[in-house]
Predict the structure.
Amino acid sequence: MKLIFKSLSLFLVYLLFSFSSIAQGIEGKIIDQNKNPLPYVNIHKMNTSLGVATNLDGLYSLNLPAGKHIVEYRMIGFKTITDTIYVREGKKTRKNYTLLEESVELSSVEITYGEDPAIPIIKKVIEQREKHLNEYQKYTCQNFTKSIFKFSGHQLGERVFGLKLSLQQRFEMDSMIKADFSKNDGFFYTSESETQLYKDKDKIKEVMVSSRVSGDPKQFSFNFSQNYAMNFYENLISFNFSNKFFISPVASYALSDYRYFLIGTFQDNNQTINKIKVIPKNLASNCFYGHIYIIDSLWRIHAIDLNITKENNLMFFDSLNIKQSFTNIEDNIWKPTSNVQRAYANIGIMGMNILATLDFNSMSQNFDFNPELNKDIFSKELLLINKDANLKDSLYWKTNSPLPSTDTERAFYAYEDSVYMVNSNPDTIRIRDKRMNRLTFTKVFTGYTYRNTFNKTSHSINIFNSLAFNTVQGWNMNLDYKYKKEINDNNSLLFNLVPEYGFSDKTWRLGSSLNWQYNKERLAVLNIKGGVNEAKAISGYKVSPFLNTFYSELFGQNEMKLYGKTYFNVSHYSEIFTGLNLKLGSEISKRQALVNHSSQKWADKGNYTSNNPLMPNDDREAFALNNSFVVEGELSWNPFMKYASLPNKVRMRSKFPMFTLTYKKAIPLEKESWADYDLVELKADCFVNLGWFGRGSLIAKTGKFIRLEEMILADYKHYDANRFHLGLFGNESFRVMPYYKFSTNGTYLEAHYTHNFNRWLFSKLPLLKKTKLSEEFSAHILSNDFQKPYMEISVGASNIFNILSLNYTLGFQNGERPYHGITLSFGISL
């Protein structure tokens, strides 16, 4: 009897759950005239933001309360359908529709002085631009976003991976790639999220309440609506696919950058909509092309269907399509409720081209324009991922998301989850570790790492940079050993040991460090370093061992000047609060001068200089044995810094400069042969955003040795100088300045400005506008007590093969031009 009662109780609970999960509303499929499914059709209740979108199969499901509803079915390029629907309690009403392509009529409009009828319309929108930009700045809304990355096809060249393929080989490779891509219908990555957005004028916060990512249920989506939001009432539009700004077709100065053509008008809910074609006057400029839809008499945007092509040189993608639909949520309140972005890529890999697409779809609903916002909502935290956001199951997404998944998407999630389970299996992990831990011939040269996933440890030895040449040690070799231990998500250890031997000076050297990151949330790190006879650069800025070897052996140019150092160093770094960080440290050391022990070189070019940078022809030791005990403090502050909890804390610098105050004191422990000085330095650096004209970096630094009793050249203030044609140059690097000529122990001032114009000029030049090159400019100035001011001016181009920059630099001092040169550097531009 008890068993029957228990079974009946469970059955009743099941029935109750089943009925409660049935939500009344409408569902169906939307197709075009050719019976093809239409994705991303907007379906929403009239004069509200409550709505959904069709998935890639054209299917939709909209939950509505029982009763009478007026529902709109809208998609850019198609006629809007408005239908009155009666929803029954507990029932889903099926509504299938065929959308017809919009038919526009070109009304008889008086053309003035050859001016297209679109021009007066655009002028009226521009007049209303600021009004529409600033209206309804206080609201809350719910956002659902989905991103899908998939492969859509491939092409094989005549040669693949450098090999010419026969017809049979091409057929077999083509079949293999097709089979691999069709396994999951080309799907590579999917992600979904649900967020709540709070906005009050310039204050904003977004909270992610649910998230799912294919392939790893522990990960969180990064699909915040703020990352993809675009307001075309702004003059300049920025987005994730480019580091450039693009001019809106209704910007205050857009008439000088666009051509406009009125295609025609059509009616939508008793409103006249003007369809206007926009074309950039310069196809290589940062402008869109496509169509913009304007509501007549209201002079506001109704919809956007714009494109960016490969002429605009997007990062990683060839072209981008952007669609936005605006909804009349309340009486004369219009907001973009649908945002669809599709990026197209053609990825070339050694003669093989992979075609891919990235779809991003966002819907906003449940707007509240009179919210009661608690002051605690807005803080330095702009983005927040709730820690339980990734715990929602598939039923939650099926019930709540207005962006329904297709059968293929659901199958892909299930497939990726099964792969994750297999990869998380202990036996799989052991097999993978065993395979990865095999020592191969290649790893002897590129470096070897032994991992233990279960213990979260790794041992690695880097041999790639182990062999180098300098005139002090001659040819030298080191083994760079690292041990890493992940204690937990917030706690890790890194131990580094570097034994080194010089074949000419016949001396062993040893360096080691222990890095304990014990609180990632607060950036808290304890660092302990030490070394015996370590060869350190006198300038403090390490010259690349590879470049020094290359220039020494081939050109007789030995720029690396070294001294010996036996030392023990302890430092601690931590965030005090968001935007304010403190570093404290101390070091005791014994320093000794070193001399050259080798004059060997491969080419009979140039003459080596001594290891004394101030007396290049004197081979004697540069200084007597010296000791040092230094304490140092560094305080850095970025006013009004914000952060995001993703869920780990990610800091976002404000538009204000980062100020850094450094105080360094050398304390003599004995009367003789001990460094004794005080140095104070103030640095300010910030990024300068000039919109259409690009982005720059401004750095200013000043310092003074306020007390000076005893020091060696290594204690002087040195600068990030360079005498090679290759290198990695930072924003405060001099490109042609000698390493030690301007070193000082007095008062100094330096300033650096680096600017990337994001093709502002090159996009207007006939040949260069077809390339991805971007123009660069930098200016660097230095002044101290003992030298005339020195200045460098550098001009060049970046984005060569996406990672290289080529510059020509002139160095001036006292009205003369003593230094100049061409430099090739690595790195991504600003």
Remarks:
- The first strand starts at residue 25 and ends at 31.
- The CA atoms of residues 148 and 190 lie 5 Å apart.
- DSSP finds ten helices and 45 strands in the chain.
- Confidence is low (pLDDT under 50) at residues 1-22.
